[in-house]
């Protein structure tokens, strides 16, 4: 599974953007998913286009954009993006005059916020604003829908860093390490919710069993205790030797059928190639 993360450069007179710094510090993989990154300019005419252009090239399963929301005290997982854009000091307008009024995030926002909140204050937000953050969220969701891309997408805002509020009395902030921890938990929750795995189990007698699941460890335990499948009742499972993740149950089941058509030697060769997550 691949997760595309985006974040903005500093803007509004700030020398840093906590979303950009967090993007740079997030690990290369989360919950087994590969993390891809793009840094964006704070520009209505460029930011969304850069993300949309990358979708067919990178083919991510999840697209999660990050942005700064100065004044907020928590990491906030956005629920909705509206068809409206407004630059400070200028008249607002529709993002797409013929477009739908709004798009809801296709990510599991409640689960993400609940997991993030275990690491640092995190909540679901019902307003992504009307600036470039909202524009990117709306435009990316619209592009995914129009092009029928098999992707989920959404947006997460983060608070100021303490260094940004030294001259802003009574303005909330959050340390970068807390932001990174909360984002890691949010993204991991999204990955887990989207993951449907096709797997190969090696049995104690050396035979191989192929199946699909949305929880690898739970399914392995079921096979080991005789509750997983008829085959593993008489051929006890030893370990998972291969797994690959898919966005939908249907894709995982289709891949299960494909692997079952392989010979034992071909399955071993696939397993020796390592896990695809």
Name the features.
9 helices, 277 residues, 3-stranded antiparallel sheet, elongated, 12 strands, alpha/beta, 7-stranded mixed sheet, single chain
Short description:
The chain is an alpha/beta fold.
Walkthrough of the structure:
The protein is α/β, with parallel strands linked by helices. It contains nine helices and twelve strands. 35% of the residues lie in helices and 25% in strands. A hairpin with a 2-residue loop joins strand 2 and strand 3 (33-40). The longest helix has 19 residues, at 176-194. It is elongated and about 70 Å long.
Please write out the topology.
Blueprint: E1 2-8, H1 18-25, E2 29-30, E3 33-40, H2 47-58, E4 62-68, E5 75-78, E6 80-82, E7 102-104, H3 109-116, E8 122-125, H4 132-147, E9 152-158, H5 176-194, E10 196-203, E11 208-213, H6 216-224, H7 230-234, E12 237-246, H8 249-260, H9 264-272
Parallel strand pairs: 1-3, 1-4, 4-9, 5-8
Antiparallel strand pairs: 2-3, 5-9, 6-7, 10-11, 10-12
Order of helices and strands: EHEEHEEEEHEHEHEEHHEHH
Q: N-to-C terminal Cα separation, in Å? A: 5 Å
Number of helices: 9
Biggest sheet, strands in spatial order? 2-3-1-4-9-5-8
User: Major beta sheet, specifics?
Assistant: 7 strands, mixed
Into which percentage range does the β-strand content fall? 15-25%
**What is the number of E strands?**
12
Structural class: alpha/beta
Q: What Rg do the Cα atoms give?
A: 21 Å
**Low-confidence runs (pLDDT<50, min 5 residues)?**
none
What is the 3D shape? elongated
Mean pLDDT: 94
**Helix share bin:** 25-40%
């Amino acid at each position: 599974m691949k997760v595309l993360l985006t974040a903005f450069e500093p803007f509004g007179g700030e020398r840093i953007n906590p979303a950009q710094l967090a993007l740079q510090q997030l690990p290369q993989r989360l919950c087994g998913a590969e993390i891809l990154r793009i840094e964006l300019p704070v520009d209505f005419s460029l930011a969304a286009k850069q993300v949309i252009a990358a979708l067919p090239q990178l083919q991510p399963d999840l697209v999660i954009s990050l942005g700064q929301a100065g004044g907020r005290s928590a990491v906030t997982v956005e629920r909705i993006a509206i068809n409206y854009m407004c630059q400070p000091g200028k008249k607002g307008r529709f993002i797409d005059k013929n477009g739908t009024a709004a798009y809801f995030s296709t990510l599991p926002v409640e689960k993400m916020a609940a997991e993030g909140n275990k690491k640092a204050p995190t909540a679901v937000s019902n307003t992504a604003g009307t600036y470039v953050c909202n524009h990117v969220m709306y435009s990316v969701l619209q592009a995914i829908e129009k092009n029928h891309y098999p992707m989920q997408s959404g947006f997460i805002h983060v608070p100021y860093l303490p260094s940004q509020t030294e001259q802003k009395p009574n303005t909330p902030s959050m340390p970068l390490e807390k932001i990174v921890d909360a984002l890691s938990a949010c993204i991991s929750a999204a990955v887990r919710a989207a993951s449907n795995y096709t797997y190969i189990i090696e049995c104690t007698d050396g035979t191989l069993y192929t199946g699909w699941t949305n929880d690898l460890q739970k399914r392995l335990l079921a096979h080991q205790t005789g509750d997983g499948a008829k085959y593993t009742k008489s051929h006890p499972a030893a370990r998972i030797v291969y797994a690959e993740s898919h966005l939908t149950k249907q894709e995982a089941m289709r891949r299960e059928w494909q692997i079952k058509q392989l010979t034992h030697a071909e399955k071993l060769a696939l397993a020796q190639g390592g896990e695809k997550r």
